[in-house]
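Side project, low priority. Logging it here so it doesn't get lost.
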Amino acid sequence: MERAKLLDGSTGAFLLSKVPGLKSTELANLTNPGAVSEIHRAYVASGCNVVSANTFSANALNAAKYGYDLAQLIQTALSLVKEAAADSDALTALDIGATGKVLGDDPDELTPERAYEIYSEIIDAALSVPENVPDWVWIETMSSIEEAFIAFTAVRAKCKLPILVTMSFAESGRTMYGAAPEDFAAKFEATDAAAIGMNCFVTPDKGYAIFERLKASSTKPLVVQPNGSATFAADMRRYLTLGASYVGGCCGTTPEDIAALRKVINDTTS
């Protein structure tokens, strides 16, 4: 069995504990870069193969809301993660989250065209300084297949970096907008996405059936990043035996959880 690649875990809870009153986690790149570096270094030390920049919520909508320059923030975030990984074999990823808006034409919705512009602005900012270009792009925690595909298309139009795409499925097997694993897999099967998968679902033990549905519907390498639990690392072992290619953690996971998962990977795969 080929050894799975280890991704990192949550950064938000750590940053909120270090920076009381933080309105949005990406702001810490500018206001508290030391805290951001600390969590990145902890994940590098835990044995991660890929460490994500603190850019999950960095987009034009939040830049307007919180008053920051998007390109400056993204470049600062990438510089911090690159520096943290510099003395290791860990790769770095630009982390892109959903806009938080419903796609549509109503005044309180986001048109697909504007969504495309928002994702294009993110990748343009990430590519603007050659030495800070990430090794990967990770589009994550998506609930809408349409939005995930728009983000993927916008990124792919600008670069040839490997792209991971993950959606957030509830225990019911569907996303907040009703998307099923089979639909997600079908939409991305013909793309050159490096991997697809699931993240930010309840706990590891609640996602096995969803993973198996995704596996049955896709030929691509699969990603699993569930939320934390008391038995997180032990419960992740089954995903490895089921064939997950990339594993890590989402909300509530810590560097200690990820270090324990590294041990499980080493014990389970060759």
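Brief comment: The mean pLDDT is 96.
Revisit when time allows.
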